[in-house]
Every structure is written in C-alpha cells, then in structure tokens.
Amino acid sequence: MQELAEVRTMPVKLRGNLVWVRNDIKGNAAQLLKAIGASLPPKLLKHIAVI
Description:
Helix content: 25-40%
Structural class: alpha+beta
Mean pLDDT: 87
C-alpha cells in the first residue's frame, strides 16, 4: 500500500531530549489496520535522554 510506504520517522530534539516520532498513517492503510484489529503504532516511537 502506498500510504504505508509514505510513513516516515524523524528525530526531534525537544527540551534537551531526542525523541523519534512518526507522521500520520492515513487513508486506506489506517482503515485496513483498524479492520483487522491491529492498532496504529504510537506517534512517539523512542525517547533518548541527551545530556
């Protein structure tokens, strides 16, 4: 599915911490995941404390 191929993750520095976030999963991909009972992955994927 094209929508799943367009999902991206990116690092964001926030208040001295590095967090990895993803963009929205839209359209048919989101509907398909819901239809099969799978939950969408969280938008906040990883948190790394930066000193």
